[in-house]
Amino acid sequence: MKDAFGSPQSLLVLGGTSEIALATAARLAARRTRTVWLAGRPSPALEASAGRLRALGAQVRTVPFDALDTDRHEEVLGKVFAEGDLDMVLLAFGVLGDQPRDEREPAGAVRVAATNYTGALSAALICGRALRRQGHGSLVVLSSVAGERARRSNFVYGSSKAGLDALAQGLGDSLHGTGVHVLVVRPGFVHTKMTAGLPAAPLATTPEAVAEAIEHGLRRRSEVVWVPGVLRCVMSVLRHVPRAVFRRLPL
Amino acid sequence: MPPPDTASVPLTGWGRTAPTAARLVRPGSAAEAVAAVRGCGPRGGIARGLGRAYGDAAQNAGGTVWDMTGLDRIRSVDAEAGVVVCEAGVSLHRLMRVLLPLGWFVPVTPGTRYVTVGGAIGADIHGKNHHVAGSFSRHVRSLELLTADGEVRTAAPGCDLFAATCGGMGLTGVILAATVQLLPVQTSLMTVDTERARDLDDVMARLDAGDHRYPYSVAWIDLLARGRALGRAVLTRGDHAPPGALPPRARRDPLAFRPVQLPAAPRHLPRGLVGRPSVALFNALWYRTAPRRRTGELQKLSAFFHPLDGLPHWNRVYGRGGFVQYQFVVPYGQEEALRRIVLRIAGRRCPSFLAVLKRFGAADPGWLSFPAPGWTLALDVPAGLPGLGGFLDELDERVAAAGGRVYLAKDARLRPDLLAAMYPRLPDFRALRAELDPRGVFTSDLARRLGIAHRPGC
């Protein structure tokens, strides 16, 4: 059960090698989290993630999970929920894609959408239903500022996150009053291996800062958190910039 | 299976933190309660009274919560011997209304009269008279308990089931009715002596020296005062007023019970209303306006015992974020630990309205009963205060190291691994539960969070 400060005792991470997810799990393990499930494609990196969290004193189990293999989501996630209540599910998987290449080879773009949106849609609905049945829990969805307004330079990724963001908001509203809390996290540019080699955007942040914002959002039972928080203001301005101007902005 | 027409509703404790959803079922009779327990689903159920437990004691995510306020009949009152037999959903407020005109008062009352008799036993509540009267269970002659097998058992002081149920947070079964010994009173007024104490040592010395002269004693302490004023306090101690102390007008109806209530606090108040400046100002005014020393003041029962009941839904002033109440006891001889804890709280500037300091008397036999001989301190803190979780964990460590414990009826955040150290009879409780309720029919968010029902190795 979560305590009065929203600290979960058990956590399921979908996308067990995500650096943001790991930073979050590490932060929560320092509070109340004792049981962690890391779901992801079996790999040495997944085991390494598990090892890191075990070193913090958490009981960690890995579970093979592939966002693209939506046919098996019910079975895989069902097994995890069958082992006991989960106080928090962190939906953290996602791919950035390569925009110029994806534009040339749309099959790659489809893969981005299938992972970030369709895979997340399937997992979020399954987890949302399971959380609803247990009457409590937080579903934390890693969205992105890129989904707030599609930009010329990464609209494939941006549109997939826009879909995910809308899904998470709608799901949050549908679960209102069921004891289940959905938190949408909208980070800006985060320094991780996913963004390694890319030029950092202004207001770039770190996985640790995102983790801190998530912990804060859990405590306040927020519906949306921006990381850094000032992005909320920045994006609300950018959202209203006319298209003719927006497409010329060097974003 | 539970009837399909009962919808899930989100529930919280009085502190309004950590909402979870459960099917709320309101049995109207013992027979309906038996049917409800027999038909409860796989996620079990827990009895709930008026929802005054601060944390998650009366919540059961995904399961059933039995709203016991439907069992509200007073079965009999023996006005000669002062014994009442009533159902578990009867509130102390109602008992006062019915019993005061007959010259009887509840033996123990907490800071609110809006608790049920069942809740009072389940949490084994205490009041300002703990140092002489003990906790509520000391005055319970017997109780009827609906257990997991759907049977109704009678438990009386001296048996294990009684000891496990008093303070057992509803985890042994559903209390259906109780027989309670009452306290005779001649008037409905209190004679109250008020005095100010300039610091923590002063207040502790005054409580130590004078408590034996008063059946009711408590000190409101200002945890935002620092330096030489650290722990400054206002002591209020009193007794039921004898008829001779009443002014002529009041003598015409010495047992009148007419508590005053303001309109309820609005439903939606912003967070941050209870901040450091507002609380510091309030506490300072409270201290400064209290008389240095005043004796024999007449106060209404409601003003003396339940000042916060005058503002219905006062918990809303903390806004949507809610608040946590932290109450612990450390044994006599651990005054140094208490001092250090007060110093830590004051040093951290927690915006805590009027914390309450009290000396407890002898403990009662409830296995998970909170009161134990020693000093108890209770404070409210807004849940949104940054770093509060870690800070209270640190206080837990100090409390446990001093041989103390925190109060489960107020808890919403205790570190589970400290539970066994704080409640040494926990193994007995778990063993009895394993025997009486092997399927775990009775469970709550509190029980899940702290693993109260778990047996090591299971």
Please render the helix and strand layout as text.
The complex is a heterodimer of chains A (251) and B (458).
Chain A: E1 10-14, H1 19-29, E2 35-40, H2 44-54, E3 59-64, H3 73-82, E4 88-91, H4 99-104, H5 106-134, E5 137-142, H6 155-174, E6 180-187, H7 207-220, E7 224-227, H8 231-238, H9 243-246
Parallel strand pairs in A: 1-2, 1-4, 2-3, 4-5, 5-6, 6-7
Helix pairs in contact in A: 1-7, 3-5, 5-6
Chain B: E1 8-11, E2 20-25, H1 30-38, E3 45-48, E4 64-67, E5 74-78, E6 83-87, H2 92-99, E7 104-105, H3 117-122, H4 130-133, E8 140-146, E9 152-155, H5 160-165, E10 174-181, E11 183-184, E12 189-197, H6 200-210, E13 216-221, E14 233-240, H7 248-251, H8 276-289, E15 293-300, H9 301-305, E16 323-331, H10 335-348, E17 355-360, E18 374-382, H11 388-401, E19 405-406, H12 419-422, H13 426-436, H14 445-450
Parallel strand pairs in B: 2-4, 3-4
Antiparallel strand pairs in B: 1-2, 5-6, 6-10, 7-11, 8-9, 8-10, 12-14, 12-15, 13-14, 13-17, 16-18, 16-19, 17-18
What does this structure look like?
The complex is a heterodimer of chains A (251) and B (458). Chain A has 251 residues and is of the alpha/beta class. Chain A contains nine helices and seven strands, in the order E-H-E-H-E-H-E-H-H-E-H-E-H-E-H-H. A seven-stranded parallel beta sheet of chain A has the order 3-2-1-4-5-6-7, with helices on both faces. In chain A, helix 5 packs parallel to helix 6. The model of chain A has no long low-confidence stretch (mean pLDDT 96). In chain B, strand 5 and strand 6 (83-87) form a beta hairpin. The relative contact order of chain B is 0.15. In chain B, the strands form four sheets. Chain B has an eight-stranded antiparallel beta sheet. Chain B has 14 helices and 19 strands. With 458 residues, chain B is α+β, with helices and mostly antiparallel strands. Chain B has a domain at 189-415: Vanillyl-alcohol Oxidase, Chain A, domain 3, CATH 3.40.462. In chain B, 25% of the residues lie in helices and 24% in strands. The radius of gyration of chain B is 21 Å and the shape is globular. The interface between A and B is medium-sized, with 22 and 33 residues. Chain B: InterPro entries: ALO_C (IPR007173), FAD-bd_PCMH (IPR016166), FAD-bd_PCMH-like_sf (IPR036318), FAD-bd_PCMH_sub2 (IPR016169), FAD_lactone_oxidase-like (IPR010031), Oxid_FAD_bind_N (IPR006094), Vanillyl_alc_oxidase_C-sub2 (IPR016171). Chain B: Residues 17-185 form the FAD-binding PCMH-type domain.
